[in-house]
Amino acid sequence: METAKIIKVAGPVVVAKGLKNAKMYDVVKVSSQKLIGEIIELNRDSATIQVYEETSGIGPGESVFSTDMPLSVELAPGLISSIYDGIQRPLDILKSTKGDFITRGAEAFAIDRKKKWDFEPISKKGDKVISGDIIGTVQESSIVKHKIMVPYGIQGEIKEIYKDKFTVTDTIALIKDREGSIHEIKMLQKWPVREPRPYKKKLPPLEPLITGQRTIDMFFPITKGGKACIPGPFGSGKTVVQHQISKWCNAEIILFIGCGERGNEMTDVLLEFPELIDPYSGKPLMERTILIANTSNMPVAAREASVYTGITIAEYYRDMGYNVALIADSTSRWAEAMREISGRLEEMPGEEGFPAYLGTRISSFYERSGRVRCHGSDDREGTLSIVGAVSPPGGDLSEPVTQNTLRTVQVFWSLQDKLAYKRHFPAIDWLTSYSLYLSGLTEYYNKKIGEEYMELRNKSLALLQEEAELEEIVRLVGVDALSTHEKLILETARSIREDFLLQDAFDITDSYSSTKKQFLILKLIMAFHENAEKVIENGVTIEKLNALPVKAKIIRAKYIEEKNLKAFSEIESEIISQVSSTTD
Amino acid sequence: MIKEYLTISDVAGPLIVVEKTIDVKYQELVEIELSSGEIRRGQVLEITEDKAVVQVFEGTTGIDVSNTKVRFLGKVIELPISLDILGRIFDGSGRPIDDGPQIIAEKKLDINGNPINPYARDYPNNFIQTGISSIDVLNTLVRGQKLPIFSGSGLPHAKLASQIARQAKVLGKEEKFAVVFAAMGITFEEANFFISDFRRTGAIEKSVMFVNLANNPAVERIITPRMALTCAEYLAFEKGMHVLVILTDMTNYCEALREVSAARKEVPGRRGYPGYLYTDLANLYERAGRIKGKKGSITLIPILTMPEDDKTHPIPDLTGYITEGQIILSRELHHKGIYPPINVLPSLSRLKDKGIGLNKTREDHANVMNQLFASYARGKEAKELAVILGEAALTEIDKKYVKLSDNFEEVFVKQGEDENRTIEESLNIGWKLLTIIPKEELKRIKDELIEKYLPTDITMEDKDINVVKG
Q1: A325, A510, A333, A51: which is closest to B282 by C-alpha?
Q2: What gap in Å lies between CA A125 and CA B223, rounded to an integer?
Q3: A333: closest chain B residue by CA
Q4: From the CB of residue B238, how many other CB atoms can be counted at a distance below 10 Å?
Q5: Which residues pair with residue A51 across a beta bridge?
Q6: Taking burial as the number of CB atoms within 10 A of a residue's CB, which of A482, B14, B145, B423 is the most buried?
Q7: Helix (H) or strand (E) holding B229
Q8: B17 bridge partner residues
Q9: Is the dihedral of CA A51, A54, A58, A59 positive or negative?
Q10: How many beta carbons lie within 10 A of that of residue B168, not counting itself?
Q11: Do strands B297-305 and B242-248 pair parallel, antiparallel, or not at all (unpaired)?
Q12: Which region, left, alpha or beta, applies to residue A549 given φ > 0 means left and ψ of -120 to 50 means alpha?
């Protein structure tokens, strides 16, 4: 092991001299306190190191030890339900060993070395296997079956495979490769975080990632394997939207990265997820969730690493053939961590002090998403969807992080604080948001939800667009200047906003809406509109229509329980009869 | 042995550069002895093999390169602390200024603290009754929350903060309570207001004050809030007290930070503030909270004056991203003579949902809150319309909303400086206001709650809801 001497300390950046064999992004241990750091710049024999822990009390002359390893994550059964910091240290273990505050130089294995797992082999002795082949499974949580894959770069014939209870470091199989050397296969694998895990082929996305949120699923859907961003000023409900997606989306594995955000928000997730029930499996949500928590007061360099740690774990589960959703809150904090480190390196800044490579880093992060054909001979498919929050300073979307993100993502959920002030949640602006996946998903929606889905969606969005134009007129000349037909448009648009788009994340029934129910609610609103259009030609006034008792039922439609969806057809027939009765 | 250096090479702004240093550590505490014998303190900001950059808290006036002595003390800045600290007043770097004795330390704590392990946190969900309707009902404060007040120069944020400090209590039980107050660069008048107000109400006994005035050294402001929070952590997590921390004015703190950053010739971020402003602020704000298994808590109310009332200025902007909501004061309401001039629409408490409802406040709280918000917003909107088109252009129903929003400001938001309303009183005022609009408009309230709480005996002539004739 090489050692070097520190020659400079400036915040989280340390420069050391005497590391001749060091490689970029190698992990080093700084000073006798063994603070974890990573080499981010090399210059002859001096290396610049970003340190993942507080550096106060460190000074020139102290030692730096190289580990000759890039920053890597541990991959094995035991990841599910864990909570890690940005460099995969388990926070629950740190609490029990170090106390309530995170002190320096704390070390703990990411994966429990003592716990024994029931390994169930699938392959047998004599099988020929290639990298990525699943040789056995472990029941990791009540929902997740962890698939043990042949590590990347190994192929050959299985000489031995055992069925027993094993720890992650026990040998579970022996594989003999073509050259005749024997590889001991263990459940524990390591993978460098900055290197995307390989796959055979990337495929175009096919299915929507259902989130149970009406605005998203009906209007601006994201696909399994898709990438979306939610930019919004503070107070616009970004976090609640992200929590809702991670709670209700139909991915099998959820990775939630709290990157530079509030400590209490992570606590909220930690306390709430074990209580909440996954609507697909009926088990606690925590049984499919992995949390990475690097709150804003934890060291900034570890914040930079946290998104890589998260996505590498996500890719690992994708490689097993799962649908994985990764939620990163917030990528702006990650970008700011890059800026801070870049500033300490005295690099030439790009826009607003961000480093010139900001755009490259952001796009290569989002490009790790996708629907892929995984390695292995069974041609299984896995997907990794990314939802990234962006926190633009002052809500100004022209800032570099938002702009660079918009260049790569396909879905844009635009949060508006003016909607949030009106307590319209989720505050996703229907006029500026978009989803480029829509055309690819039309077939799926029409087949799975209802023939008229696309038509219904486009019609209602058009009404909302018209509303915006009419509001301009109202602002200038008053509501009386409008024709009855235009007034009806305003009324229906209001109904779409309040009775369909507005969704209460804290109401038990309303928090999650199946696509079927979403479709039915919208259908009710539009049915009222269409029927009303007919009668207003006969001189029926808006006031008279608004006074119909069925209006109240439309308002309450979102509180109809999932098991009770029959009720919708009754309301629909009431709409027809009541509206037509107005002409009597 | 502590070495003494006579090797200052540069003095620039609040910084000095000391050469030929040996064995100096990052963030080490430094003592600087001027040729006059005056002792100042500083901290190492950057250290290379033989050179240390030191920021001097009391400023560099009078420091020369030939005679000034520098000593590196081999430790980071620490706060000597014991329970005797209650009732005392200190300057911005922790020296007593109330003519009392030095604190006999039970222990000395590193003022930078350590981050709370997110896993060890307990979620804040105990309702704090501040006695102020617009906070209690609409932007509920809970224990362990960090809720800043965004103010502007000339607005009564000091009054509001001290009213909160005075009235704040958790319903039901008496518990050990303390206030830690840190002033950064505020005027003598403002500081004096707090001190005399705390004395008047007897709150001083339960308070610790760290005061850095506008004419005190600017760089000292960087350590003042850290002293205060370290003190709060000690009281909360070691002595089991519920601590309310008031930091005023964060704008001055950030400016001090900018001054140091500029002197170091760092690449600036927005408006010249350093790129690490977010991280720096987070390191302060995130020290608030609750810890599982500990009795105490830290509730944090930072006050900041927004330059030109601009919410998108980096200081309020970054603060808003870290804190759990914000209370925004409005100049318009202040001019109308409404105290506290809280603009409820853009104000927000992110933690309110877990702190309200049955057994915490009252079952109708969430519904009433949403209804009031929505109705007030609609009334304000209609009023804007009326400005352009004249009142005649409003529909009957919109006129009612306008009336509701006017009365809302006059009856609900406005209250006396010593008026301490219970949560029931506040909610009942809300219900009374809601009688102005027709019952069918109460879309956000459950029917059974309307049945139970909506007053039926109020006529339109009732003077309480008719302050503003509509």
Answers
A1: A333
A2: 66
A3: B278
A4: 15
A5: A37
A6: B145
A7: helix B224-233
A8: B10, B53
A9: positive
A10: 21
A11: parallel
A12: alpha
pLDDT of residue B462: 61
Task: State how far the Cα of A87 lies from the Cα of A73, in Å rounded to an integer.
Answer: 8
Distance CA A185, CA A175 (A): 7
Cα separation values, A54 from A153, A314, B59, B205, B257, Å: 37, 28, 26, 36, 19
What's the whole-number average pLDDT of chain A? 91
* DSSP structure class, residue A285: G
Residue A140 CA, distance from chain mean position: 21
B181 close to B208: Cβ distance less than 8 angstroms: yes
Structure tokens given for A249: 């989306």
Residue A284 is given by DSSP the state B
The two structure tokens encoding residue B433: 């206001």
Model pLDDT for residues A294-325, shown as the tens digit of each residue: 998 888 888 999 999 999 999 999 999 999 99
A320-349 residue pLDDT tens: 999 999 999 889 999 989 988 888 788 888
Q: Where are the beta strands (DSSP E) in B315-414?
A: 325-328, 348-349
Q: To the nearest 10°, report the CA torsion of A541, A544, A550, A554.
A: 50
- Among the partner-chain residues B115, B119, B318, the one whose CB lies closest to the CB of A270 is B119
Q: Chain A residue with minimal CA distance to B374?
A: A422
The span from the CA of A110 to the CA of A74, in Å, is 6
* Distance from C-alpha of B294 to C-alpha of A507, rounded to nearest angstrom: 31
Round to whole Å and give the CA distance between A19 and A65: 9
CB pair distance less than 8 Å for B267 and A349 = yes
State how far the alpha carbon of A293 is from the alpha carbons of A194, A316, B418, in Å: 18, 19, 42
Cβ contact B140:B355 at 8 Å: yes
Å between B304 CA and nearest CA of chain A = 16
pTM for this structure?
0.89
Please check whether residue B231 is in contact with residue B73, taking contact to mean a CB–CB distance below 8 angstroms: no
What phi and psi values does residue B255 have, to the nearest 5 degrees? -65, -35
For residue B392, the SS3 value is: helix
Residues of chain B with Cβ-Cβ distance to A353 below 8 Å are 267-269, 275
Task: Report pLDDT digits (tens) over A437-469.
Answer: 998 898 888 888 888 888 999 999 999 999 999
The one-letter amino acid code at A233 reads P
pLDDT of the residue at B470: 44
* Residue pair B282/A297 in contact by the 8 Å Cβ criterion: yes
Residue with structure tokens 């009183």? B425
- Distance to chain A for B172, nearest Cα, Å: 25
Place of tokens 């629907």: A371
Closest CA to A238 of A339, A387, A397: A387
Q: CA A285 to CA A277: how far, in whole Å? A: 6
Report how far residue A157's alpha carbon sits from residue A155's, in angstroms, rounded to the nearest whole number. Answer: 7
Sequence letter at residue B94: G
What is the chain A residue with the closest CA to B352? A506
Distance in angstroms (rounded) separating the CA atoms of residues A180 and B44: 59
Tens digit of each residue's pLDDT (9 = 90 or more) over B313-338: 999 989 988 999 999 999 999 999 99
Q: Tell me if the bond preceding A426 is cis, omega within 30° of 0.
A: yes
Give the whole-angstrom CA distance, residue B280 versus residue A234. 18
Q: Contacts of residue A297 in chain B, CB cutoff 8 Å?
A: 115-116, 279, 282-283, 285-287
Contact criterion met (CB < 8 Å) for A267 and B389: no
| Nearest chain B residue to A395, by CA | B312
CA angle B154-B157-B159, nearest 5°?
A: 110
Contact residues on chain B for A7, CB-CB shorter than 8 A = 48-49
The Cβ-side half-sphere exposure at B112, using a 13 Å CA radius, reads 19
- CA dist., res. B60 & res. B65, Å (int): 11
The residue ranking higher by pLDDT, B468 or A167, is A167
ipTM of the complex: 0.84
Predicted pLDDT at A477: 79
The H or E element spanning position B51 is strand B51-56
Kind plus residue range of the DSSP H or E element containing A160: strand A156-161
